[in-house]
Design brief:
Layout: H1 7-41, H2 45-74, H3 78-87, H4 89-97, H5 102-128, H6 145-178, H7 181-194, H8 200-221, H9 224-245, H10 267-272
Length: 286
């Protein structure tokens, strides 16, 4: 179980937490919002791919690097934090209720349900001309084959580094401050949601709820690998499955200059412009 923390440890953890969260929040509120607004105006796939590549590298360095540094300091508390959280009354009751294979069965049912609903939704979206997005994320959807690769890479990277930071490292640091496991996990999930401010208020609410769900899955299951895989699969659904099944972007080559942005990315409209001359790589097309 968790040890008692003296005030110097609590103070040091509080200062480190404030510095980290403040840096992440400032970056999200200024840099991420500014870059995403610019990304939405890009017509050249070369510019879009360059930004996607930059975001992938920055996420790997920032979130992955922060996770490694924090876990190097607080890793002895990761196991005790999880055990203490699982021993609390609501989590213990839930774990008992899901014991005996019921939890695995429910997880499999949930995965099959999501897969079936995705296929049904994709078919309906093709007929109706678009997918309803939760939050301002339509511009992120890949628009051709090369962008699909970056979408897949971003999805897998997010599943690993974001879960390592917001389900392992940050809660373990926060529990030194709060002294209580569930509040530490909940606060980390809220920070996770707020860092998606570039997606607008709806996106922040949706990702906060999603962060709480991922947190609950981790605490109940005790497996961070499971949550990483589910996170990556969910992002792959958005950035790979939907663009392929709805917009057929895998049929669009990477030498297409996009027309002014419609409400949703459209592979058909991109193909229609393929015969046009591709602008120089340095042209933003904005």
């Amino acid at each position: 179980m968790l040890p008692e923390f003296d005030w110097p440890w609590r103070l040091g953890a509080a200062v480190l937490t404030l510095l980290l969260v403040a840096a992440l929040a400032l970056r999200a509120a200024r840099k991420d919002r500014r870059e995403y607004a610019r990304f939405r105006r890009y017509r050249s796939t070369a510019r879009r791919q360059a930004m996607l590549r930059r975001w992938l590298l920055e996420s790997l360095l920032l979130f992955g690097g922060s996770s490694i540094v924090l876990l190097a300091v607080v890793h002895p508390l990761v196991g005790p934090l999880l055990a203490t959280a699982q021993a609390t009354a609501p989590i213990a009751w839930l774990r008992d209720a899901l014991a005996g294979g019921l939890g695995i069965a429910l997880l499999l049912i949930a995965l099959v349900t999501v897969a079936v609903l995705t296929l049904i939704g994709a078919r309906s979206a093709r007929q109706e001309g678009g997918v309803v997005m939760v939050g301002d994320i339509a511009a992120l959807l890949p628009r051709n084959r090369p962008e699909l690769g970056w979408g897949a890479a971003l999805s897998i990277n997010a599943g690993v580094v974001e879960e390592a930071l917001f389900r392992l490292a940050l809660p373990t640091l926060l529990v030194v401050v709060t002294g209580e496991p569930l509040s530490a996990f909940a606060l980390a999930a809220v920070v996770f949601g707020l860092l998606h401010i570039y997606q607008g208020p709806v996106g922040v609410v949706a990702t906060t709820v999603l962060g709480l769900v991922f947190t609950l899955l981790y605490v109940v299951s005790g497996s961070i690998v499971l949550v990483m895989v589910l996170h990556a699969l969910l992002d792959l659904r958005t950035l790979v499955v939907i663009p392929v099944t709805v917009y057929r972007v895998h049929r669009v080559p990477g030498t297409v200059r996009f027309p002014p942005p419609p409400g949703q990315p459209s592979a058909q409209s991109a193909v229609a412009t393929e015969a046009a001359a591709e602008p120089p790589a340095g042209d933003s097309g904005a």
